[in-house]
Amino acid sequence: MNGETRLLAPLVPSRGYFPDFLTPAEGLLGMDEALGALRETPAERLHAELGRLAAADGRPLPGWIRAMADGETRSLGRLAGILQSYHDAAVAPYWHRVRSRIEADRAARGRALLDGGTDRLLASLPPMLRWRPPVLEADYPVDRDLHLGGRGLLLLPSYFCRRTPVTFHNPDLTPVLVYPVEHPVPRLTPPVPADRSLGRLVGQTRSAILQGIGVGCTTSELARRVDVSPASASQHATVLRDAGLLSTLRQGNAVLHTLTPLGAALLRGGAQGDGPAAG
Fold first, then answer.
1. Which of 37, 95, 110, 244 could anchor a disulfide with 26, C-beta 3.0 to 4.6 Å?
2. 195: pLDDT confidence band, cut at 50, 70 and 90?
3. What pTM does this model have?
């Protein structure tokens, strides 16, 4: 990894405050848009947020960060370049894994919303968040209240957020709550090698399983859609999960299956006439 990425540590301490400008709203559109927005951060905002960072940390900031706080645009461009290098080395190679967990969480929240509205959605969030109408309580590092004032709340599942949720420090920004996604329990047995998993995949039933998952479904729903027993649906889903083609998220007593980006890509390829062989 590029040695310059170590320079990010003072900007993002392991605990406590970090500047809001590092997570622009444009990040929802992609890395390029996020970095473009970061480069356009107003000087007065940089000065205020980096000054708050220095006060919270109690230690002097490195010279290049102090220059950025004083409005030196070259340092802001340097920061964007460092973030791009870090993303390329530490995030991009694993993006398919990150994306599959995020999409599984979104499917679970969407299902809760359809089944029971906002109350069911908020009640379905991870255990560090508790919906006690009209208040959503969170295990947060500091004691604070965030009043929405009719603005709504943007819920963002995060692969990298752990233990506690995160929100903007500035209450005037769009209310956002970043919460941790569920991570699978580490395997107690070695994973099935990819070539073996993909070899076991071939067949009409598993093709039907992939198509039956749609935007997400439980094992029992999948069994009904494909007309197999729940035990058979569970077995096929395990093979598909081992092959990296679907993701499974536990919801109470049930599990929710969703396609990973690889599974969706394979399904799209099959729809274009390059489907799996019969077995």
1. 37
2. very low
3. 0.70
